[in-house]
Amino acid sequence: MWVEILKMALPRVMRVGVLSTPLDPTSQERIRVAEQDARSLGLQLDIFEVPSVDRLPSAFDQASRARVGAVMVLGSPLLLTHQVRIVELAAKVRLPLISAWQEFQKAGGLISYGTNVSVMFRRAATYIDRILKGAKPADLPVEQATTFELIVNLKTAKALGLTIPQSLLVRADGIIQ
Q1: Tens of pLDDT along 26-81?
Q2: One domain, residues 65 and 110
Q3: Which of 120, 12, 118 is nearest to 68 (CA)?
Q4: Fewer CB within 10 Å, N- or C-terminus of the chain?
Q5: For residue 160, what is the domain's CATH number?
């Protein structure tokens, strides 16, 4: 879905960089799905591995040299903790950033589509509470996110000289001015 939203927001983009970390066991599956979506939209994905936070600057240098039109962060919790640095680096090379986490947009990224991390943590707290009160973890139901929010940062779009299509703005759950 991130690739589709990115293509709607930036229809001229043909090449997209993806930040990935080998430390996240789910990154390969996320990349596989993104590559399928990209192929169906005629986009090329370039994967930039970030094995440690000190490699973030070189990943953005590589993305800039590869002439990608945007960068995606596919929801890795390991990269979430470095959202401010990632947004700063994207701004430095003037690349729009799309992410699964709203925190990236609050820090200055362009678009996010995903679950609300604060809500997820509150839900996790209710599970911890139940376990501490004696519930067996195996007896608790598995929950999946059911609410996904689209956030667009128009301040960032303006700084990058981008115009976000009205069709995407009307779908947005939140707009940062």
Answers
A1: 888 989 999 999 999 999 999 999 988 899 999 999 999 999 999 999 878 788 88
A2: yes
A3: 12
A4: C
A5: 3.40.50.2300
Q: What's the sign of the alpha-carbon dihedral 32, 8, 12, 87?
A: negative
Measured between alpha carbons, how far is 105 from 116 in angstroms, rounded to an integer?
12
19 phi and psi angles, rounded to 5 deg: -80, 130
Q: What is the DSSP letter of 138?
A: G
Collapse the DSSP code of 150 into the 3-class scheme (helix H, G, I; strand E, B; otherwise coil) and give the result.
Answer: strand
pTM (two decimals):
0.85
DSSP at 148: -
Q: Using alpha carbons, select from 145, 124, 118, 28 the residue that is nearest to residue 76.
A: 28
The tokens describing 173, both together, are: 């759950």
- Tokens representing residue 109 in the block: 């990224």
- Provide the greatest CA pair distance for the chain: 55
| CA dihedral (87, 34, 162, 165) positive or negative | negative
Q: Within a 10 A sphere around the Cβ of 76, how many other Cβ atoms?
A: 22
Residue 134 and residue 81 in one domain:
no
Place of tokens 């700063």: 88
Query: 134 lies in which domain range?
Result: 116-146
How far apart CA 20 and CA 30 sit, in angstroms, is: 9
Can you tell me the distance from the alpha carbon of 5 to that of 128, in angstroms, rounded to the nearest whole number?
35
Greater pLDDT, 35 or 123: 35
